[in-house]
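Bit of a strange request maybe. I'm writing a small parser for structure token strings and I need a real example to test against, not something I typed by hand. Could someone generate the tokens for this chain?
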Amino acid sequence: MSFSSGTNISLSPCFSPSLPISLSPLETVVNISPKASLSLTKGVADLSNEKVTAAMKRWFLVGFAVGVAMPIVGGGLLFRWWQHTDRIAWGVRVQGVALSGLRGEDAKRVLAQAFSPDRFASIAVPILWQGRVMQQVRLGDLGVQADVERIMQDALRIGRRPQWRVSLRELWQGWREGISLPMAWRWEEAKLRRLLQQLAPQLEYPPQRAYLMWEKGTVRLIPHRDGIRIAVAETLKRWRQALAQGQWKALPIEADPWHPEVTTEDLAAIDGVVGQATTSFRVSERNRSHNIRLAAVRLDHALIRPGETFSFNEIVGPRSPRYGFQKARVLVRGQFTQDFGGGVCQVASTLYLAALRAGMTVVQRHCHSRPIGYLPPGFDATVNFGSLDLKLRNPFPEPLYIRTFVKGGRLTVLILGKKQPNLTYRLIRSVRTFGAVREKVVSDSSLPPRARKVADKGTVGYQVTVWRWHIVNGTVVKKERISTDTYAPRPRVVLIGASNNNAPKPQPSLPPTPTPTTPTSEE
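Reply from user aminoacidic:
Good idea to test on real output. This should exercise your parser:
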């Protein structure tokens, strides 16, 4: 409200309206009635109360915020400070041993005393095999000890997680309910494996493979028998879990069925002989006879699965004294000499001829450097471990099975398989001779003067091509060329006693063997 000078205001009913009141600027008089005075006083009071109330609210909010923030900030600072200490959270126990609030080194001492090796080393744990106790083993023998360092790391992680919410939840859980940790254990893996190796001979028994017997012209099948062996990986896995959890009431050994390499089902389809060959040798050559028998035994009962390639060297093995072979006559670059394994080539050649008659596929084969006496040229196969091998593949959908027999001076190789009455094979050799047998005289001081001795009869050259005819129901349906071999002519070597007078004169060449002009059958 504002008043200007010279203003006439009627303020009370006692004044006459006809009597104007003139107020000078310096003599302005305001006459307020009691009612108006009370209203004005109340307005001023209301305005003051609103300001005070607003101020009080602001201070209350500030005080409340400070009151709330101070414990939070203080608690947060205290929490962060505790996380950087080495004290274990409240309520933490390790397998019943309380560690609340202990420093790291103190907690280690407490655990080391509670879980000292002396208390556990003598504990005997039963080893179970198929539900039976085989023996007792002490934990100390397995190297079982409390892993204090690892459990301390686990205990110190409680309340110190990367996520602060997880840490607070763990601290709250420890305060209210407590946190129990299982003791961590360690052991020596090598001792566990050594124990299984020691028990294996007592627990395991190997399987027996299936065999085929050839008796009086018929095939007899001897069925296989499964064995049993320790499942090492599964056993160690279960033992690790049990030891890690401190559960060692018993340590069971897991078993696996042990199947043989050749089962009854593998041989069920074989019903007869599909190929065979027989060669002769001199029993008087004892070392050579021994080598032939040894190689034949290793070859016997070999199974060639459908599509599989058979390696002679892999089955027979190295020809060395370590593998039982003896020194005997061998052919090296056309010359006869003595070496370990002499006679093994005869076993390979007999097998090769039987394989050709059985219809097997020739993957690798080498002929000799000169014709040999126990088989016609073209049917031989020379082998040398590490360089020359005989490899044969089974092209049939059924397996093939090798049997060998040595009786007296005869070696027989049978190839058993699924007989095909409508299919037969016939081997044809085409032979061409060339060259002449020349005589080569060699002086030998061990002979009397002018004494003569034939060391090598020599031979003409041969070029031999072997064909295999596939005959179905009496009709030739395929002519398969197997090999073309060339045997160089060899001179006739004559040893003559050394003489001081005249040197030996070479003899004239022997006439060559006539060359066949038509193919000749092996039969």
